[in-house]
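Office hours follow-up: a student asked to see two folded examples consecutively, so here they are.
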Amino acid sequence: MRSSHPEGPPARGRWRHIQLKRQGKTVTDFDLYDLLVNGDKSKDVQLLPGDVIFIPPAGPQVALTGSVRHPAIFELLDEQTTVKQLLSYAGGASTIASDARISVR
């Protein structure tokens, strides 16, 4: 699969459930946020010839804007994703942020 986004999955691709398939079986299913935000390489697997990286369509998303360090649209892992986790993905509140007001769309 060719992507115009060498830094990650295409805009409509999933970041939270990327699968490495080998001989038709899923070897690992990993969350790119865990790697990029938390540095978690626990699901790191060596690629072998013939392996396929499968990127399914993106899941539900939330936009975080305003006084956060990295405003963006973030993909939810599941319905249990918290505002605290989303703020972590966005690098936290900026120094001018108000603790009394957060907007999530």
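And the second, which I mentioned at the end of office hours:
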Amino acid sequence: MNVLSIIGGNRLAGDVDVAGSKNSALSLLAAVVLAEGTTVLHNVPDVSDTHLKAQLLESFGAKVVWREDSLFIDCSNLHNGDVDEEVVRSIRTSFFLLGPLLARLGRISLPAPGGCKIGARPVDYHLKGLAALGAEIEFSNGIYHARCDRYHGAHIYLESASPGATQHLMTSAVLADGITTIQNAAMEPEVTTLAAFLNAMGARIEGAGTSTITIRGVKSVQPCEFRVPADRIQAGTYLVAAAITGGDITVRGIMPEPQLPVMAKLREAGAEVVEGPDWVRVTAQGRLQAIKVRTMPYPGFPTDMQQPMAALLSLASGTSIVEETVYESRIGHIQELNRMGAKIQLEGRASIISGVERLQGAKVEASDLRAGAALVLAGLAAEGETIVKNIHYIDRGYEKLEATLTALGGRIERVSTQDIGISHKAESIL
């Protein structure tokens, strides 16, 4: 077992080139099964989730080859495979394969999905939408069994603008007979990226990025080459890293527009934020000011940035309020930040954060991906050493995190729990 050892107190500064988007890559890796032949994806992030998704594709007969940050996926000979349930349960987006695989194979079985435990994430919208397209789905002993000779166009209304359901149903409808409309669709950048990818394969999709998406079904699509855009959540995390350490970081290779909610809140807290056509720079000096944050679907403040922002505000002057409206259980960071000296109280879905002047290094435990990122940020700003456990969560979504932060001036190292030198204290960290 490995942990992250962080010695806090250093001001982070420099330039960062952000890796490809994890969330986009995972949705594209579900969509590749629609086309026979070899699809090439460039700028795929080297994180555990993308490797697990590639492993799942291989279970269904795809041939997957990694060449640096490019993936070559040959889906010519797919079949209903014998899937490792543990792999499926380890990532939420495994379920996104159900619809497109059913479009190709006519019959498919897939275990129920897993992922970070951040609250209820039912697949009802996915199932209702697939049923509207003509799928017959039964759930038995933790496994979904689905069949459909061919999808037919349908009118689908999502009761909640779910990014996952939007992407899943949009992909599934590509090969349907007739026209499919998705109303109250999610507008996240990952949705527009997926639509661009599918259209590059020969799909006919309009309206992605708005609340109504229209998919005109086609008989078949062809493989293509496509570049995964930069990860907006990784980018936001590094911008917050600049603010929490009183640093100066420029994140390059990104579109500023998806960062606008984070940029606005950093400015409100007192950080200096400057943007260019493909970069954002954050500089901070002195103590930031308390603010209010409320997570919302895009283009609102992203739920994935709620926990890193809470780490930042734990050091701000005054009382901040962070309200989580998307996932009710995205609170695993609170107890651990309090262990480091933060003063955070949970009232319903709102975190009431009374800012403190300093955090102290401690042994803390990541409960999910973004909670892990929040603890790393806190450790960078804290006095002394912070040990972060359960870093497999962090590895799901951050490529080369230690190397990137070290290049910016941070002191962070991945060490084995068996290494007696990981802490200056004698007690076990387990």
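Two things to take away from it. The CA atoms of residues 376 and 388 lie 7 Å apart. The first strand starts at residue 2 and ends at 7.
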